[in-house]
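Hello,

I think I submitted the zinc ion job twice by accident. Can you confirm which output corresponds to this input? Input:
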Amino acid sequence: MKVSYKWLQEYLDIDVKPKDLAEKLARTSVDINDVYSPSDGLTKLVVGYVTSLKPHPDSDHLAICQVNIGEAEDVQIVCGAPNIAANHNVIVALPGARIGNNIKIKRSKMRGELSEGMICALQEIGFTEKVAPKAYDEGIWFLPEEAKPGESIFPYLGMDDVIIDTDITPNRGDMFSMRGNVNDIAAFYDLKPHFTEKKVVENSDEQTSDLISAAIPNPEIAPTYKLRVIKDVQIADSPLWLQIKLWNAGIRPINNVVDVTNYILIKYGQPLHSFDYNKLPSHDISVRHAHQGEEFVTLDKDTRELIAEDIVVTAGDKPVALAGTMGGLETAISDDTTAVTLESAIFDSILVRKQARRLDLHSESSTRFERGIDPATVETAVDEAAQMIAELAHGTVTTGIVTGSETKPKPVIVKVTLARINHVLGTSLVAQDVTDIFNRLAFVSEFNGDTFTVDVPTRRWDVNIEADLLEEIARIFGYDNIPSTLPAQTNNVGGLDAEQKLIRSSRHVLEGLGLNQAISYSLTTIEKAQQFQITNGGTPMVLDYPMSQDHVATRMNLISGLLIDVAYNVARSQENIALYEQGRTFVPVAADQRPTEEEHIAGVVTGKLLTDTWHDKTEAVDFYQIKGIVEQFLQNMALTGNVTFVANTARKEMHPGRTADIFLDDQIIGYVGEIHPNTAKEYKIPESYVFELNLEPIIANDKIARHYQEISKYPSITRDIAMLVNDYITNQEIVSLIQDKGGAFLTDVTLFDVYQGTHVPEGKKSLAYSLTYQDKNETLVEDKVNQAFDKVTAKLIEEFDITVR
Amino acid sequence: MGLQDKLNDLLQQGLKQVEESVNLESINDVRVKMLGKKGPITEVLRGMRDLSAEERPKVGQFANEVRDQLTNAIDEQRAKLENAKLNDQLKKEAIDVTLPGNSVAQGQPHVIQQIIDELVDLFIGMGYVVAEGSEVEEDRYNFEMLNLPKDHPARDMQDTFYVTPEILMRTQTSPMQARTLETHDFSKGPLKMVSPGKVYRRDTDDATHSHQFHQVEGLVIGKHITMADLKGTLEVVAQDLFGDELEVRLRPSYFPFTEPSVEADITCFNCHGKGCAICKYTGWIEVLGAGMTHPNVLKMAGVDPEEYGGFAFGLGPDRFAMLKYGVNDIRDFYQNDVRFLTQFDQKG
Ligand SMILES: [Zn+2]
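Support: Only one job matched these inputs. Its output is below.
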């Protein structure tokens, strides 16, 4: 809400800088968007009196004006406004002036005629189109007759005021009014406010109830509904003081009736609606839900199609307003209005909110109905409005208020003990401190031994329970004054659990191996969500009402997100990309059930893992490099289970000859390989190698308790074997057999050469392994090693038909 | 010429030869020539048998001195020569040490992960446990159990990705408040937990909005937890992240699941409170929201609000990272440009 500092001063003897007041408001009640003066950035704008004018000889729309700017001689200013006229005070921007949009005014010649400045419209001195009065849309603004030429225009237009623009949290609806602001500021500065209410004088004997009736059959949608009628009104512009109050609050002045309702809205936070009494199709007023599909033309000339949840004010069952949101065009106040029906009501906050949201009709009124209305001022507000209309539009106020519904607010009594206050806030307040705070808030309180009994005024409908009172005490006492402590230490031990530790370590391992952590979007397209699954898990969970086509479904793999990242990098000329991601994948269980969330880890390498330098040229990544990363990762996980790699030619998105499924014992936990060239093409990326692992079985698998073996003091012996073998026999088969049949002293098997080509027969390959033997307890004798080596060689021949080379 | 004079002569002669040796071969020659078994000193000593019993030890001692002196001189000269030779060689091996070193493979943790880990570690140090919830949540836990019934206006502030009317992408990490409250065994002491994770809002992605971001939720519930404890905790967090010379201010705020609710600001680290574009000329930067847990939240989770109470807070790692490093576009976090990711490599 845009709170005028000058208006506040009418009710409060406040003498702090507006900036300081704003800071105090932020620390005590509501946040601050901005503190500004309407005159910020404007200079050399003075009152000018147009003494005479003549048409410009070379233009049909320019006028040459002689303007008194308070100096000995008039100055000549060329003006193009259609409403320019002599014997009026106008806004003059002198040469060197800064006007709106930071435009600088210079002395100039306009079609040959000297112009010593510019005569300005309100829009040209910073007023927004939304706020500047409509009557002056096309022309300049006239200052009041009593304005003195040469003086600054700011005081005449209220532009010397300072506006504190507050950002109000949903609970503090009371702060949407001057009254609420005055009360809160008075509380935290310990001031006595002199907020004045204007009493109505019913200067017509005519009974309002003879003119109009209100019946609310469903008081839940309009708990309070009241009407007044003012007759014999003369519609005119409002006095300048009222217009200033409105435009400084960001509301456009319209006429003396509508302006009064807006003034009351700001002063009390009570929205009022004014109907042209004579244009109401009937004088039997009611409030009801709209009929599904019912049409209604609102004030802004839009035809609205309503739904059954909407609420409308009706006259003779015909809608005349969207309750609390916007009035109707047909019954709006116009220049020929002579009688006004004023509505002061409380509408259901949820229904108003939904209606305003659905129709995108958030207004000053709907905002206040949404945030709450003080039931105590519904009548006060309509009375004061009626009186002001009587005064400003010379109307007569008929006798009595017509009430369609009225829900008396229930008294709110909240109790809290002094001990509880100090226990929750961590303070050491004494009873008098608390009583003072309640007094400053103007909450009636009683202290009885240890308990405060507080009668909460209706204007603070956000205060209902003990916790609410604690907040009031805390903020008025001042958060700055609350001590700073830490929760008393207990015997709780904090920390990560085993799963969290493993996940954290898994990230560190891959970073150590050269992959950068990526965090991609979990929501993706349906197609990408279901690609690259470790096991075929079907289709992903899909959002009911997504925001964009790219983020529709929850991912079932991490690789597709990483490939999007690769594509993003490739498009930006990055050639070497090494990424990993650790995060959730979502495996649907059944409709209407939440999916199972699995922790996965995945990686991608495109190009080289190391960048070339002048000194060192490296190879582009290949299958064995990414596999090395996976192997080291799994080694670090210290799994007791047996990890094996098995070729899989059937993964749709993967290279059929360069992909291995990864098994932990007999459970598949992931895969590693090159992505299929077609997949690479789809993603617009070059040759890339990926892996994805399901961390859940890795977490669940027992870990090797002592991932360590003592270094033997005794020497080791190695034997090399080179063999020719059919090329369909895998390394894994051979290594498994060697390990299996290698004997008790075999400690290591290392493949050191693979060869195919010249000197190797078609269909065969040459493999060479180095076998290491060692005894932990004594020096091995050659004989034992020879025996074991011969045995394993024989087994290899028997099993795989190898030829030893 | 007496033996003594002879020895003296030999010494002078030897020292001269040592001094004149310019390489290891010549110094070796000197050693063999002077000190060898067939060398002149041995020769002189052989002549000692002709000396008297009184003179013999004197000459013997002198002969030993001469031998020692020569040995030392030779060793010294040899060391000098060896050193010179090595220095020569090292000189030849000199390279341009300003040429760059080889590249090494080191991946970096994501900057948001770094912030989360830092926060989590900070809280672990204060005795918190870490509880990660599900990213797909039930409406009940994401809203209702947090005192946000179906028509609550605050739901409008968080546009939600629904899957079904009861299932949604969590809009906040706060559901873990309700879930941990339901399961915590208070007989074993207070509940102190943080819950980091991804959250989702139905937003259009732009420089300041992202449909996916992160939160770290915190909850402390016990018999003696005060607002002063909350204030102290928030100060620790803010100062740990942004520096302990910064002032922390608490402002009243509103969250349905806390009452009183506060927001914590820190002095703008860019302008130190004077006002600048980063702090929108307020001198303050909003860093987190918090409050004393609403009694309804406790009640709904089956915890007696008369006996137990405490505080909750929500931290935004994305926002922290943006503030801390001056990242202007939140999308940078999720596009994973390697030039972006690799910059955050400060350790320790
Ligand atoms: Zn700043």
